[in-house]
Amino acid sequence: MTKIELTVNGTRHAREVEDRTLLVDLLRDHLGLTGTHVGCDTSQCGCCTVHLDGRAVKSCTMLAAQADGASIVTIEGMAKGDKLHPVQQAFTDCHALQCGFCTPGMIMATAALLKDNPNPTDEEIYHGLEGNLCRCTGYINIVKAVKQAAQTMK
Amino acid sequence: MSEKHAANRREDLRLITGRGRYSSDNNLPGQLHASFLRCDCAHAEIVAIDTAPALKRPGVVAVFTGEDAIAAGYKNFPNLMTFTNKAGAGILQPERPVLAHGRVRFVGETVAMVVAESAAIAQDAVADIRVEYRDLPTVVDAEDALKPAAPLLHTSVPGNLTLEWDTGDAAAVAQAFKQAAHVTKLKVVSPRVVPSPMEPRAALISYEAASGCYDVYTNSQGIGMLRWQISALTGVPEDKLRLHLHDVGGSFGQRSAVYPEHGALMIASKKLGRPIKWVATRSECFLSDSHGRGIVMGGELALDRDGKFLAARYDFVVDMGAYLTTTGPASHVRNPAICTTGVYKIPALYANFRVALTNTAPIAAYRGAGRPDIAYVIERLVDQAACELKIDRAELRRRNFIPLDAFPYKTPTLGTYEASDFNGCLTKALKAADWDGFPQRREAARKRGKLRGIGLSTVIEGTAAGFQPKDQIAIEFDADGRLEVFTVALSQGQGHETTFAQIVADTLGIAAESVTLRQSVHGKNIVGNHTGGSRSLVGAGSVCKIAAQKLIEQARPLAAEALELEPSQVDYANGAYRSRDGAKSIDLLELAKQHAGASPHPLNLIAEASVAATFPNGCHIAEVEIDPETGVSEIAAYTACDDCGTVINHAIVEGQMHGGVAMGAGQVFGEQTVYDKSSGQLLSGSFSDYAMPRAGWVRDIHMNDHPLISKVNVLGAKGVGESGCTASLSTLVTAALDAVRPLGIEHLDMPLTASRMWQMIQQAQQPQQAKAK
Ligand code: FES
Ligand code: FES
Hints:
By secondary structure, chain A is α+β, with helices and mostly antiparallel strands. Helices cover 33% and strands 16% of the residues of chain A.
């Protein structure tokens, strides 16, 4: 067992977890933040994407213990009260989600992408979302949403 | 798109803020966790299973095997297939114990289930189980499986042939072929795909001894269909099955069937008296989710001197995997049989279907479910005939379209088509795609070193047939008098909460926000179809409108009473009843509130209708560019002109089309399910080996519509969920073929992976290069 302390969506948590506990399991099972999803076991789908100290990470790919001391933001922490994050707003405006299972990961990946590159080209968006799979939308509206979010965040 | 019907869906807010509730988000106090041991060989006898080492591991509560499945009697899966062979015999349905007993028949079959205090312990303990297998010969290819010397999977299914069924007039077809001026023949494959909705399968099942009821939390396409299947499999009466279905992370047919894991978890929960939870890993999904497609199709088309179609003949070999799923055979035989004539007048038709078993994962419905496959073989045939006869592809189609005045058109096999304007669709699409300007674009691509081709398809599909004779909708008013609409249908991304609420609200003339949709709710005594086969809008959606109309009439006497008038003296418009002179009025919702608390609420109602199948159709045109140096294909342009009848919500229809075309593009360019021929091992068992479509594969779709309103339902809708898949396979493949035809390549089979294309281009170029030297 390992003792860890971390901040998630602004709240400090101290937990004792098994050494092998993944960050995503800590979020989902220990903290009840089920907005972060698990879509694969090979780090390829991006459904589990969260922000760790401001960077997008796949939370299925790291141990909870590795997040000791870190500040994490999950999809539940993106809106400020009733005010949606511009990326969330863009996803609903552009019909960039259907079943919504990939969506939290897509939104987190997009927010990080736009932080690094506030004005991405289509190619840069395709590249930036390479690690996120969506089976429903064909990505066309997701790309639109990324662009709309880029505009509103300017 | 009107403002009122803008994108923002009712369901979006919870899904974009992480408040969706998917299967694996469910937990119950005291729950245990299950993990399955799946066999690692494709065909073998189980000689011995030693579960003792697993049971010794701390935290393990129990291990279940095939013995438990047999003891429970959970081995007979239901099947929707009603067709019989020539001798009148039904499909041969092999037994499938929910945990394998005596024999395993595909890699990934459930052999044992460990139940433990945590998921991690259960997974560890699975590795402790020792199984001794005696290997048997393996067959993974459906055509091979039907050969006389093929390994036999089930003694109850001689020759691995579960059903041979045919339709049409063989003699008339033979006669027509004799008289034909030209015959085009080909054989194409619609390769097996793994549906891979992003949410893995999961279930949480809890048995309640006092009532004998099971609470089932799982992902599904709708309550009635799954409840019926679980009951058929387990013998537990439907009224003892309480299904709790919430958000579903995509389905595409993959969640149409009951799974062995449902039965196994029920056995465990009953025995242990605790809720049991299981969440599949993606690796398990690849191995054991129902797969899709997997059809080898022979096609022959007979034409006269003028390029008129005289007859067509099809020979389908349908791979069903090692066992039959509930929806697999019906999807792969009934659905294609309805549209064997495509959009063309073909006087004589014959199709033969052989439904085979192989040592692979069972196959079920997958978006389109047989419709894209039949459309694919027809369109490939027509294209090839055009090429052989040197007739323009659009022109050959025009010569053979079923004309507008021929509807309703009874096809020589199973379908009766609703009116469609195939020529109108084609003409619009050709213009929108600038078909005539293509030679310049091809030339420009050539200068860039790329091979560019254009492809065209005109397709039709029979949708909304459903498996239930009718669809019912309940309208109820809650304790506060708020309007709730209940459906059996369950969205897996289609946006029912938005669309169906919109239909009810528009019919009543009230704001959409005042209508709340509740889908697949346990305890609602309504019947109807699950969401599949592009059915829900046409079926349940239509009944939403009928229910709203019924509500207006049902509330009229109460409104009249409130207004102190005769019912005949009040008119309804825009959400309110008014006296003729307009002096008095009462809002419907206000009226409902006044009666809130009455039990039952006097405005509660159930509406129903039997809604017939309908026929969306369209013309898609694509341009594909191939880099001969790498073999990589790119979709350079995609234009669609569809007739999906009345559009209720444009954003959702476009989204369905995007998703459908992208799935088609996945099957055409990337997705490849590979079983090793000799070992039966699945070689494409993860997202690193299985190429899912990614952002950028389909960059844009230029959408047009050319609707003829359906006459068979009150909405006039034709269904759109599968159209993108149905049209895109042939459109994209023929575009790629058009790109490489100048090199002398005359046939392509999906998937057009870069390596396959590169090899073909290399081979084709060698003799040319030799000649050049
Ligand atoms: S669950 Fe983390 S990448 Fe798929
Ligand atoms: S919206 Fe369903 S997987 Fe992306």
